[in-house]
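Researcher: I'd like a structural prediction for the single chain below. Treat it as a standalone chain; there are no partners to consider.
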Amino acid sequence: MPPARSRLQKPPSTRLHNPELGDITRASSSPFLGISSKRLGICGWILFLLSFLLMIITFPVSIWMCLKIIKEYERAVVFRLGRIQADKAKGPGLILVLPCIDVFVKVDLRTITCNIPPQEILTRDSVTTQVDGVVYYRIHSAVSAVANVNDVHQATFLLAQTTLRNVLGTQTLSQILAGREEIAHSIQTLLDDATELWGIRVARVEIKDVRIPVQLQRSMAAEAEATREARARVLAAEGEMNASKSLKSASMVLAESPIALQLRYLQTLTTVATEKNSTIVFPLPMNILEGIGGVSYDNHKKVPNRD
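Model: Treating it as a single chain, here is the predicted structure.
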């Protein structure tokens, strides 16, 4: 037979996962942190009854002190004798706070803008830059934001700075300048995973500006200008090659039809005459006159002297 369990042996504790407070290890099997005889004890119940009695005795006045208004975008985390009253924050609307034993903390659930100051970063290719950004986040679990971290906004601010430096330190300068959206998305993912236990949900991360030294800016401008000049020369050479091929094809067509050269001359003359020119110098070969007036170089022979 298996040995009997000793009465002095403690029962095994159960590990519960609370979405508001994370993993909590306690002997109780109830996932709630509300009022119970096991949680408060005899002294707690006595203080609770005295507080409730005090509220009844001073009813006309105490009602204004015990009723609190929580706005639509706020939640209230109530501590009763130092313990969180429930696993979910209260509000919005009216909540009852007992005198002397209840303390509540308001938490704003609206989106908060966290402006990251310029961070001096050494990139992977040993370039010193200054990068600043902005983080948009909000609190989705008021209990976790109050119970799991001292100052949730300061912690998120410092973590955003550290994450920005760590992520950009693994990238080159060209990758930072060309892939801002991908870098911002990776920073958002890292921040969202790290702040999940704090009740924070990161909505968006943006990199505002990347500042590089003036000397490096001049070097990059000179490099870009040289690249543009080289590309322009290549395009000009390709254009000359294509133009020479076209001129070759045109010369072959003009060689097949001599009259086409004369028409080309007349078209060029018409084009030049459209401008406001007082004098037009137009070269005219002699062989064109042969087709027009029948003038030939052979007819201009010297007539022999009859004397």
